[in-house]
Design goal:
The chain is of the alpha+beta class. It has two domains: 117 residues, D-amino Acid Aminotransferase, Chain A, domain 1; 154 residues, D-amino Acid Aminotransferase, subunit A, domain 2 (D-amino Acid Aminotransferase, Chain A, domain 2). It is 25% helix and 27% strand. It is built from seven helices and 17 strands. Strands 8, 9, 10, 11, 12, 13, 14, 15 and 16 form a nine-stranded mixed β-sheet that branches. Strands 1, 2, 3, 4, 5, 6, 7 and 17 form an eight-stranded antiparallel β-sheet that branches. Strand 11 and strand 12 form a beta hairpin. The longest helix is centred in the first third of the chain and has 15 residues. The protein starts with 9 loop residues before the first strand and ends with a strand.
């Protein structure tokens, strides 16, 4: 859910700030036609020491890896883009915000070829409330009929625009059928992830999450959850999860930059545990909330203050 913007807003566009409403491209732009762009999702939070961007360097590193895989001729370095994110957050003066870096082929010539096409980068910030309206009470999910893409089709570890058609199909199907979100399986039939979220299940107070081999996007929030859990004495296992384990686990939750920590209370016709948010999920939510708001000295390096 996006919140309306009160103050004048700007988009960083190839090194210059442009009025939000004037940050436009041609309707035939290659990345609009073919989904050939790469993006990131980052959040900035208020803390006791001021506003801080959560795990900026890790997000920009993944952004740069995606740019390399997609062979986008971006002329900015990771350091320059990190600095640009900070400047954009400062410029737009939002209390808390969602940050969207996006690299794309800014060329209006029809055709699949990308040789000699110009690449542009924009950075925008928007206020963003809870991604799921039921984030604090728990959501219901269904196992999607759409399988997760894999590396023989499209690189799933890249946040490429075109990859998310797979996600849109799965999420739209779930919502048409009265559920809040989908859970996707890999081609091999193992649990992969949500359309825009990683997934954890809880069995006997142990966190279990699919490995990279299950064709997931290795989420930065996912990594944060794993580190926070281990630091607080919660056991974590990365392994393949069979579909039926979704129905018998004690708890489950999604995690992601937009979704943060979102409890899952029902999958298909199966109620998880007692149908309420479980203790382990509540603990992880608390640890994550404290971390992004600067309450963990141990994880202070995750925050870039602006």
């Amino acid at each position: 859910m996006v919140v309306a913007m009160a103050n004048p807003q700007y988009v960083w566009f190839d090194g210059k700030f442009v009025d939000f409403a004037k940050a436009t491209v041609h309707v035939l732009t290659h990345s609009l036609q073919y989904g050939s762009g790469v993006f990131e999702g980052i959040r900035a939070y208020e803390t006791a020491k001021g506003k801080a961007i959560f795990r900026l360097q890790e997000h920009i590193a993944r952004f740069m890896r995606g740019i390399k895989v997609m062979s986008l001729p971006v002329r900015f370095s990771g350091r320059q883009l990190s600095d640009a994110v900070v400047k954009t957050v400062i410029k737009n003066r939002q209390k808390e915000c969602y940050i969207r870096p996006f690299a794309f082929y800014n060329d209006k010539n029809i055709g699949l070829g990308t040789a000699n096409k110009k690449a542009s980068v924009i950075i925008a910030t928007i206020p963003l409330a809870a991604y799921f309206s039921k984030k604090n009470t728990g959501i219901g999910c269904m196992v999607s009929s759409w399988s997760r893409i894999n590396s023989t089709i499209i690189p799933p570890e890249v946040k490429a625009s075109g990859n998310y058609l797979n996600s849109i199909l799965a999420s739209s199907e779930a919502k048409r059928l009265g559920m809040d979100e989908a859970i996707m399986l890999s081609i091999d039939g193992y649990v992969a992830e949500g359309p825009g979220e990683n997934i954890f299940i809880v069995e006997d107070e142990k966190l279990i999450t699919p490995p990279r081999e299950a064709d997931i996007l290795p989420g930065i929030t996912r990594d944060s959850v794993i580190q926070l859990a281990k630091a607080n004495g919660i056991s974590v296992e990365e392994r393949n999860i069979h579909r039926e384990e979704l129905f018998t686990c004690d708890e489950a939750f999604f995690c992601g930059t937009a979704a943060e920590i979102t409890p899952i209370l029902k999958i298909d016709a199966y109620k998880l545990g007692n149908g309420k948010i479980g203790n382990t999920t509540r603990q992880i939510t608390d640890y994550y909330t404290r971390a992004v708001h600067g309450a963990y000295e141990e994880f202070e390096s995750w925050l870039t203050y602006v």
